[in-house]
Write the C-alpha cells for this entry.
Amino acid sequence: MPNSDSLISIVIPVFNEEANIKPLLDKLLPIVKDLRSEIIFVNDGSKDNTASEIKKYAKKDQKIKLISFLRNFGHQMALSAGYLQAAGDCVISMDADLQDPPELITKMIDQWQKGFKIVYAKREKRDESFFKKITASIFYRLINSLSDTPIPTDVGDFRLLDKDVVELLNKFPERSRFLRGLVAWGGFSSNEVTFERKKRIHGITHYPLSKMINFALDGIVSFSTKPLKIATYLGFFTSFFGLLGMLYAIYRRFFLPHDYWVTGWTALFVAIVFFGGVQLLTIGIIGEYIGKIYKEIQSRPQYLIKEKVNL
Ligand code: UDP
Ligand code: MG
C-alpha cells in the first residue's frame, strides 16, 4: 500500500534530447524534492550529448540515474528497460521534451494513493499539428475497433503504474512491446488525470509518419487477429464475384454468337487487377503476422546496455 515512505520512480526515455535535460530537471526536481524518488533516464542510443548532460546531474545527485543503450532500440524498448530497473512502489513514465508536464505528477500520485493501480494522463487538448491530431484519432479508432483489449484513447506513455502492474509487464516475454496495450491488458483498476499537451520545447519529434504507421501496425498485430479474419472474408467475397464472372464467361462462350468471344477484355483486366490487389493485400496481412512470429522465435536480446550510472 502506498504511504509517505513510498519510493516513486520516474522513467524517462531519451533520444537526442540534450537541450531538454536541463529545462526538464529544473522543473522536475523541485516537484519530487520532498518525495522519496529516483529519476531513471534511459538513453536510447543518442548521437548528441544527452548522456554527458545527464551524467553532470547524476554526479551531484544520486537519485538521478542513467542506463545507456549501445544503439537506438526504440522508445518502447527504452521504457521497458526503465520498468525493469525501477525499484519504486510506483513508476511514472514521461517524455523528456516537456510535452508531459511534471506538475501533473503530484495529481497522479494522489490518485494512486486513493488505490488506483494505473493513472493515465489523458490529453484533453493538444497544441499539436492538425496532422498529428487527425492521425492519432484515426489510430485510436482503428485499434479499438480491432482489438479485444480496449486501448484507452488519447493517453500516450505518460502514466503512473503501481509496482504490481510493473511486475506484470516485466514478466511478459514478448519482444514486440506495445506497452499501451500491455498495460491495459491486465485489467487493473485505473483512473485518469487530464492535461493540455503542448508543443515540444526543443528538437523535433522522433515519430515521423513512417514510424507512426509502423507503431500503429505493431499495436494492431499485437492485439488483434481480426485482420486475418478480414482477409478470409475478403477471400469469400472476391471468390463469390469470381464465380459469377466465371459463369458469365462460360455462358457467353457457349450460348452467345461467335463475335462476342473476343470482346470483354475490360472485364478481364478489371478482374485481374482486382483479384491481384486482394491477393497481395491478404498475403501482406498474413506476412505481418509471420514477421511477428519470426521475430519472437529468433529470441534475440531486446536491447543491449552500454553503461549504467548510479544503478
Ligand atoms: N524516444 C526514444 N527512442 C526513440 C524515439 C523517441 O527514447 O527511438 C524518446 C524521446 O526522446 C522522447 C519520447 O521517447 O522522450 C517520445 O518521443 P517524441 O517526443 O519524439 O514523440 P512524440 O511526443 O512526438 O509522439
Ligand atoms: Mg514528444
